[in-house]
Structures are given as C-alpha cells and as structure tokens.
Amino acid sequence: MTPPIRIDRDVEMAMRDGVALRGDVWRVDDETPRPALVLRTPYDRANTNSDLLRPLDAATAGYACVVQDTRGRYGSDGDWDILMWEQEARDGYDTIEWAAAQPWCDGNVGTFGASYLGIVQWMSAGERPPHLRAMAPAMTTSGELEALETGGALRLNHVVCWLAYMTLDWLGKQLAAGRPVDPAAVPRLMELVGDASPALEHLPLGEIPHFDFPDFPLPLRTLLQPGLGIAQRFDYERIDAPTLSVVGWYDFLCTATIESHMRLVERGGGGADARARHRLIVGPWIHDGRLPGLQGELNFGVGDGPFAGIHRQHLQFFDHHLKGAAEPLASVQYFLMGADEWRAAEAWPPPEAAAETWLLASGGAANTADGDGTLAPERPAGGAEQDRFAYDPADPVPTHGGRTLPMGTQIAGPFDHARVESRADVLCYSSEPRAEPLDLAGPVSVRLFAASSARDTDFVVRLLDVDPQGRAIPFAEGIQRARFRNGLGDEVLLEPGAVEEYAIALGHTAWRVRPGHRLRLHVTSSSFPAFDRNMNTGGPVGDDAAGVVAQQTVLHSAAHPSALIVHTIRQVVPDGR
C-alpha cells in the first residue's frame, strides 16, 4: 500500500548570506525522520517530471525530497547570474546542511538531478558538506571538459537557446521590479524562444541583438569565448561522496559525463575504497529527462527506456548509501547500440576493449558517399595521397541530429545522414561490409593530417554505421578549431597551405556494427548551428560580418597517415543485466 504523501510548499531555506531560497518538501505524512534527497533547479521546481527520478517516487520510497528553486530563479530570492558556480557551491552546501537539520531528516542527505541540476551537485560536493552521503549527477559538464568536447568551437545552438530560455524568468523579474526594459526587447526575445534562427544566423555573432538588456548579468561576448560558456572546474580530489553518473550516448554532454566519472575513479577523494564506490550508467538517450525507447529514427526497444528502471536504480543506489541496504549496481552499465542490449563492466572503457587503428585512403575523390574513400585496418596499395574540398561559411553543412541540444529548431539523436553526405564538402571514407559483428566500446578519436588555405578553420569528423540499404546513422562525432589545435591555452593561427596534425576526440560510444553493415567516417568543416561557423579569417570569435572560402586538403599518405582509432571487443561478453 502506498503511504500518504504530504507536500510542504514554498518552504524557506536561509542561506549563509541571509537570502531566502524556496522549495517544496515531499515526504511521507508522519513524524518519522528519514533520509533526504535534494534537487536544486533553475528551471522552476514545478517542472520536475523526469524518468531519472521523480520527487513522488523518492517520497514513496521513504525519502524526504527537497525540490528547490536556485538563487534568483522563480520562487527564490537573490540575484541570478549566468555563471555563478561558486555561489551555487555555497548554496548547495547550505541547502544540504539545512535539510540534515530538519526534524523529518535523520541526518543522511543525497542529491540528484540532470544537466544544470547535476552541475550544482558537483560544485557543492567539492565543498564537502558534512551530511552529504551520496550524489547522482546526470548529463553534466565542466569548463575543462567542455573544451575537450568542442575543440575550442562554440556550441552556438546551446548557448543561444539555453540563454533565451533562462532570460525569460530574469526578464519577468526585471519587469515586476519596475526596472527599465526596452519595450521592443520583449517581443524580440519571445520570437527567439519560438525560432532561434534569426539569432543563430546573425553576423557578427557578438552583436546578436536579442540579449541587449540593461543590467543583463553577463555580456554575450563573454559566452562566445571558448571554454567560458561553462567556466567551472570540478575539484575531484575533494569529492569523496559516492556518485551515480547517468548519461546517454546521444547526449551532447556524453563525453564530459563519462570523463568526470573516469577522473573520480582515478583521483577522487577518500582513498581507493571511496573511489571504488562510483557508478556509471550510459544508455542510448539524448539530453532529456525523458528516456523513451524511440530515439531519432531508431527504436532501441523497451529495455532502454522506462523499462530499464533508471529511477529504480537511483533508489537502489541511495538505499545502499543512505539506508545501509546491499549494493546491487555494477560499476559500469552501458547500452550496446546495434545489439540493443545492456552490458556490465568493471570499468570504463571495458578492460577487454582494445584499441584498433583504421586508415583513411582514396583515389583522390572521396567527396560524397558516392566517392572512392575507403576505411580499413591496412592501407591499400596505390591510390592518391589526399582529398580536397571547399568550405564556404555562407553555405555550412547543416546539423542533422547527433549530439546536440534539442532546443530551438534542432533535433538530437540518430538520424539518416544521406542528404548530408551528398554534399561535395563532405569527404566519406567507408569500410567493406562486415562479415561478422564488430563491437565498439570506448573512446573514439581521429588523427587527421590536413592543410587549409585559411588562417583558421574547423575540421568536423563523424563516425557512422551504414546499413545494406544505405542508411547512414552517426554514433560518434567531434570537432577541432584549428587555432586551438594545441589546446585552448596555446592559440596559434595557421600558415596557409601548411600541413598540420589534428587530434580530434569523437567522445565515447558503444555500438555493434552488424553483418552487412559498414563503418563510415565523414570529414568536413562545419556542423551548423550546433557549432558556430568558422569564418576562416583568423579574427576574434564574434567579430566577423562575413567569411571567406577555405580550400581544405586532407592527407592520407604513408608520411601523413590520417586514421580512425576505435576500441573493439572481439569476444562475446555476457549480458550484465
């Protein structure tokens, strides 16, 4: 029988500086002290319907669930700032300790939530709240990991659409307080929420007019700088609370979430025993709290969605660390796409996965899927040593699903790229059809030797599965801005025509290439509007009103062996679920 649940609304929680944050407390309607779970959100505490874990599920399972609006958002007092990560750390600490001190709490506190709701957990955990016992940050990133995942390019659709969404509540509070707001700015922002195209296509980027408000918390140009969109760092060495990290293979924060888990396991606080308590779950999902079996054009089956029981596994994780129940979760659980089944592993990448190198080659005409580009473990005899294409920022390759934020006009997830790879500015390197299954599990990268006529440009690479009917589904992708090829701290423009080596990370994946299917690698120079267009001028980001066409050369000779590096599992691994 389900116990009666009470919801205490608009509960005030005083922070150390006297500012009152407000939230709702969901709990069984009795006087028994219970463990507490804290969810802190900037997106309105009334909107918490996630397949990961719902407040009602937590309360029904015997937890007191605190759902709080973060500082300056919706029902909470104080001022909102776009990059107030240090403040979020302090507020998170204070909220955890506030919950622990309530008569309905037994002193054991956990935290959960996805995206921003997960990032704030990392920040507060670094402050080491005495009563924090465990946390479940899903779909998260940090400044250093964002830089790794974007190669110095800007997630344009993410920045513009997320900022528009966040600005609505801020603008409402400005108007309610009687502060000056340009009357024309309000409909302009509302237009952007409905269709982000006018802002995404605006040049120069640094002069997008939609966020031109008096007293706006942060100049738009600051957000255009590489790595500054999410400028916080996670202090892994100070985090000793056990973590359950959850993310999807098509989440644009997939790599960052997995890398955070790996860094905690490697160097987290509390010693070896504490580091062994971290858990990771990766399914075939996009960046969304809903986890349906249908993602993009693919149906991964009921086992990947609500029937995967991710909410149940959250509760099992917290039951172990907050209630002393047995530990039921494997160290790593991942969904092998293509086989459409769950696997368990001792670590990530799976210890049985081994790196393999596949070489790019062609007869000099790898342009489009109908070209002659090949991808194989060994370089074929003969052939050309390079391929060429022209990249025009006025006609960029359009983003079509993949790992992007599903906001504005963008969709995310696995979609057929047949139209994308029909363009002459997309080089395609394809393997022979597989005679037997090939399981990939782990990080994917590309070693690319390339030259450009421009002072700066981008290289975008994408790994796809091509079925016998020719449907090309991407499952890993990466980008590298040329000026940051040596890292964000070492900006160096190109010498036009000079050959450079690029190490491009495509993130992590787990995919089975079925018999009759082929691997294909795309090499191009844009994916708009997921990323901003490199204008090829070498000028500061956000300044250019127009770009120039770049002539790109990709080399794949013995002296310049451009290659794809994947991790494969050659033996059959038992199902871990």
From TrEMBL:
Transmembrane segments: none annotated. It comes from Conexibacter woesei (strain DSM 14684 / CCUG 47730 / CIP 108061 / JCM 11494 / NBRC 100937 / ID131577). It holds the Pfam family PepX_C. InterPro entries: AB_hydrolase_fold, CocE/Ser_esterase, Galactose-bd-like_sf, Xaa-Pro-like_dom, Xaa-Pro_dipept_C, Xaa-Pro_dipeptidyl-ppase/CocE. GO terms for molecular function: dipeptidyl-peptidase activity. NCBIfam families: CocE_NonD. Keywords: Hydrolase. This is X-Pro dipeptidyl-peptidase domain protein. The keyword Cell cycle does not apply. Residues 315-565 form the Xaa-Pro dipeptidyl-peptidase C-terminal domain.
